[in-house]
């Protein structure tokens, strides 16, 4: 795997999703990268923190802003294993993040279903590691039955 590729960073996000799975959380993971440096990594913690805002993306945004010492995430890329929801898309809008790359599409709760806008400066791509990310989430819910 080539270092500093989108694949490389998405794989780190996937590792975060696996960490969420281990904690009995819906397995979604995220990392934020600037200049090929990981400045935030997080996974969903809504159960652990009993906080519906504790999505991987929300935590990553907070960590990255704290690391950078500024509220805007220009020149940053978010890698996340599932399409962001409305809430996270809203937060990403305010962050003015440069790029958002998500793995699996979420046709039920993804931001695109609701036409939630990202910032006009934000470029979006998706599909990288989508199958593995979807399979991990499916196996999580199957384990709950
Ligand atoms: Zn979210």
Number of helices: 4
What is the alpha-carbon Rg in Å?
14 Å
Widest sheet, order of strands: 2-1-3-4-5
Strand count, sense and closure of the main sheet? 5 strands, mixed
Which compounds are bound in this model? zinc ion
Strand content: 15-25%
What is the average of the pLDDT values? 96
Number of distinct beta strands: 5
Class based on secondary structure composition and strand pairing: alpha/beta
Helix proportion range:
25-40%
Which regions contain 5 or more consecutive residues with pLDDT less than 50? none
N-to-C series of helices and strands: HEEHEHEEH
Large-scale geometry: globular
Give the CA-CA distance, first to last residue.
Answer: 36 Å
Report on the architecture of this protein.
The protein is α/β, with parallel strands linked by helices. It is 37% helix and 20% strand. The protein has 4 helices and 5 strands, in the order H-E-E-H-E-H-E-E-H. A 5-stranded mixed sheet has the order 2-1-3-4-5. Helix 1 (6-22) packs parallel to helix 4 (130-143). The longest helix is centred in the N-terminal third of the chain and has 17 residues, at 6-22. The protein is globular, with a radius of gyration of 14 Å. The model has no long low-confidence stretch (mean pLDDT 96). Bound molecules: zinc ion. The site of zinc ion has 6 residues, from helix 3.
